[in-house]
Amino acid sequence: MKYIGEFIFLLVIWVLLTWSLEPAQLIVGAVVSIIIIGLVGDVFLMQPQRAFNPRRVFWFIVYIPFLLWYILLANLDVAYRVIHPNLPIRPGIVKIKTTLKTPMAKTFLANSITLTPGTLTVDIIDNVLYVHWIFVKGKDMEDWTKAIIGRFEPILRRIFE
Amino acid sequence: MFWHTLGYIIIVIGVLFDLLGCIGLVRLPDVYNRLQAATKCVTLGTAFLLFGVFLIFGFSSTGIKSLLCAIFVLIASPTGAHALARGSHKGGVKLWDGSVIDLYAEDTLSDKNKGD
Q1: What is the DSSP-derived secondary structure letter of residue A130?
Q2: Per-residue pLDDT tens digits for A69-110
Q3: CA distance B73 to B39
Q4: Which residue range forms the structural domain that includes residue B67?
Q5: CA gyration radius, chain A
Q6: ipTM of the complex in this document
Q7: pLDDT tens-digit profile of B51-71?
Q8: How many domains does chain B have?
Q9: How many Cβ pairs closer than 8 A exist between chain A and B?
Q10: Which of B27, B82, B100 sits opposite A114 (nearest CB)?
């Protein structure tokens, strides 16, 4: 069941990429999809049935513009620091704790952190994330956790857990 | 015509962000800060460029391809930056002298000491 879902997903992407429905293209696409599933099919989607839960889909759709907004802010932030003659940076690696549990949610959290203002995930060990921050504010783990992932965690929990 | 104009405007914005990202690569002091510039400005700049191409070509072969590439860049770029940052830290690349804190080094070093 899981592999059939992955196969259809990959084949749809193939059709979108080649933009043709000729049988020859479809056969090549099917072969490529099967090869990809054979190589990395295990790690692809942990629980595919969750992808069809309407509540999760709804929150995912809410999450995308939310994330895009913070990506835009991140860009203006970095642009400001880069252009400013004094280079106002105060970098450091801090650690934060997440309460998210599934690997998928952690992956999305790490990628969201990297794309948002001034932060870059360096490593994840269990539920601790090490984050490189271009301008460290606050003193302890609670401050950092709140400042960096406070706004993402609730939504990601609704999507993935 | 409207979509064409909008597409060109978005491409210009994307190129500007790419330029800022490259200035950041030159100006910022160490590999981690440079990765910040590379992942943020260059990711959004490139995604904007590809989205502009999509607006100009619409739902055709070229447009859909550039849209898929934009999504791929948005997913792959932070993952790549994460791998680079982790790899360079494990490889012993020091943080810039002006850095205020490095808990990752503390924790991984104390782990090593425990191992000894």
Answers
A1: E
A2: 888 887 888 888 888 877 777 777 777 887 777 777 787 888
A3: 10
A4: 2-115
A5: 20
A6: 0.74
A7: 999 988 888 888 888 888 888
A8: 1
A9: 127
A10: B82
